[in-house]
Task: inverse folding
């Protein structure tokens, strides 16, 4: 029997853990989403806290998500996606293409961080309510300049590679993360995303191409998929969504 | 004759390009720092701009640094360091350890971004002078909470691995990036760094262990090493350095 993967991530938000879930689901890899299990069975937030507090054997981790697989304890979303992608046919075989998949994963991570920082420009240690004027200024720059620039970049990458997938000839972990990022942006910034993505039809087609993959479609329709909400990275605050 | 590596990065700051330079230097890999060559020989800022403006053949890139090697065009600091590390004996051979080296590289990248955002909390599109009050608030949270937390984490990683290197039994690209990050933090926040690093003697010893590597020491003493200044990631603004 293969060793189960264990994912440790906050149970009530998609967050960065969702990028890992999508790779595990598309790979058809057996895994347990530990914190989404009942507390009585070792689930809940405490299971996640134990990892970054160092109350576990193995490599120290700075923050969730964390993947555990036998003795391996691995954090950092992009590192986990790269690791799983290489093991489960969701990374290109070619060395240069695999490096590109990681590169794209990291550029998506930058975009995700910038989307998060629209509501927390002064840092995550303060509540949104304590930095609303600053959030409005940062969000205005994000929706007017950064968002179109990022979307335009990924559209160019898609077109450069023939239009179906970001890199190589098949879906990779980078495509899954692009899908999740577009979903989050469309949730958090419906007006700004609609405007910016009008210029990137290839990205919108890519989003549907990923969404309709059989395993992904089954996952997205399941109880395992956490809904976006206002405690995660992508928050729908209308005052931050420039029209 | 081996194909030369070409690095495309802003010529007058260490910035994120410096993490790539350190890997190339410690590897003893032949490379050209293109933008630091005279403009008449294809150097200068224009050589860098051409890449993210898409005026080149090959994979589109979002931002510098960019590594070119034959047909390969690769961006994203951590992806470049991982790629070079694996090719030049500066990444662990073991698959799990190599994933950890990338994980640590990414946690360092997060720390570098947070250090940058102390002076640009509202985004890089505005001058520092246009966001000074916000910068003071963000920097105070960074120096009091985030900086000690990051340094404490890397100290734990070092101790967990025996104290000499972050992962595996030899120096890796993650160790080089840790060195550069500590150098930058000590430059930008001399008071806060001195205070926080008093609790992390292993990190301070590690910094000297890297600095005195023969190839690194030769590089650091050379004209090739750009000095820190107030146009890069790590800026010495005394008003942001809590005492």
Result:
């Amino acid at each position: 029997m293969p060793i189960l993967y264990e994912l440790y991530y906050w149970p009530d938000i998609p967050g960065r853990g969702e990028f890992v879930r999508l790779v595990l689901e598309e790979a058809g890899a057996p895994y347990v989403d530990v914190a989404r299990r009942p507390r009585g069975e070792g689930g809940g937030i405490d299971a996640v806290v134990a990892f970054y507090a160092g109350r576990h054997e193995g490599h120290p981790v700075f923050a969730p998500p964390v993947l555990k697989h036998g003795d391996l304890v691995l954090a950092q979303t992009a590192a986990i996606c790269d690791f799983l992608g290489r093991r489960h046919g969701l990374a290109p075989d070619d060395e240069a293409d695999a490096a590109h998949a990681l590169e794209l994963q990291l550029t998506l991570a930058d975009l995700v961080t910038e989307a998060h920082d629209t509501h927390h420009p002064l840092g995550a240690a303060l509540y949104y309510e304590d930095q609303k004027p600053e959030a409005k200024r940062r969000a205005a720059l994000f929706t007017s300049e950064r968002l179109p620039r990022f979307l335009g970049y990924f559209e160019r990458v898609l077109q450069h590679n023939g239009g179906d997938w970001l890199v190589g000839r098949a879906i990779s972990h980078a495509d899954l993360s692009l899908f999740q990022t577009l979903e989050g942006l469309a949730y958090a910034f419906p007006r700004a995303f609609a405007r910016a993505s009008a210029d990137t039809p290839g990205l919108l087609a890519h989003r549907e191409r990923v969404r309709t993959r059989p395993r992904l479609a089954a996952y997205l329709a399941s109880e395992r998929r956490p809904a976006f909400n206002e405690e995660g990275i992508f928050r729908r605050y209308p005052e931050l969504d420039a029209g």
Observations:
- The first helix of chain B runs from residue 17 to 27.
- The domain at 95-213 of chain B is CATH 1.20.1050.10 (Glutathione S-transferase Yfyf (Class Pi); Chain A, domain 2).
- Chain B has a mean pLDDT of 95.
